[in-house]
Automatic annotation (TrEMBL):
Taxonomic lineage from the root: Bacteria, Bacillati, Actinomycetota, Actinomycetes, Kitasatosporales
UniProt protein name: CGNR zinc finger domain-containing protein
Entries under InterPro entries matching the protein: ABATE, ABATE_dom_sf, Znf_CGNR
Domain of life, source organism: Bacteria
Gene3D superfamilies, sorted: Jann2411-like domain (1.10.3300.10)
Pfam families, per the entry: ABATE, zf-CGNR
Record-annotated Zinc finger CGNR domain positions: 158-200
Length: 204
């Protein structure tokens, strides 16, 4: 008789689990966070044109009119996989695939729009309003942010992963106060506290 195959428990995909995250601490990790529950059954959070637009709004970027959502999503998904491979390697000491490094370097080549300042009527300095980006400029911004993260020792030292074994979202510690243990206290932190409370209450 064949051995019984034990399947991992199914995760109910709730609206909260599918929600886009913008709290990873930097642009490239906010892209990585568009996949949830990586250690188990991954949850796609940016799989269509509507979610792509929502993610761009959430990170403060705008794509130029006329882009092909499927093309942009395909490119972002490829960059996302490479970014996760590279960033997670800084935590678990695995060597990222060479194709991941090559892709990031390739996408970082085009120069994104140079930052500009504007002066308001009352004399305040502000960044110029959102400018529409080509697909290439968008990918370059994300790729360059990843390169900056990985080559800046101070920033890289703040890279961490959520302590929840079913989450493991990559994020940056703020660097002040207690080290960041959870991706969010309102999410994994509260679930861990609730689980600990149930365990204590059930103890004899």
């Amino acid at each position: 008789m064949d051995a019984v195959q034990h399947q991992p428990p199914r995760t109910r995909v709730t609206a909260q689990l599918r929600a886009l995250r913008f709290d990873a601490g930097t642009l490239c990790l906010n892209l990585v966070a568009t996949v949830g529950r990586r250690p188990g059954v991954p949850v796609e959070r940016m799989g269509d044109a509507e979610r792509l637009e929502a993610w761009c709004r959430g990170v403060g970027l705008t794509l130029a009119d006329g882009y092909d959502p499927r093309d942009v999503l395909s490119s972002l998904h490829a960059l996302r996989a490479a970014a996760h491979d590279i960033a997670s390697g800084a935590l678990d000491a695995h060597r990222p695939r060479q194709e991941s490094v090559d892709l990031v370097n390739l996408l970082a080549r085009p120069a994104p729009p140079a930052p500009r300042l504007e002066v308001t009527a009352d004399g305040a300095w502000v960044a110029e309003g959102r400018r529409a980006l080509s697909k290439e400029a968008l990918l370059s911004l994300v790729a360059r942010d990843l390169i900056d993260l990985m080559t800046d020792e101070a920033r890289r030292s703040r890279l961490t992963a959520c302590a929840s074994e079913v989450c493991r979202m990559l994020c940056l510690d703020s660097g002040g106060g207690r080290p960041r243990k959870w991706c969010s206290m309102r999410r994994c932190g509260n679930r861990a506290k609730a689980a600990g409370r149930r365990l204590r209450e059930s103890a004899p």
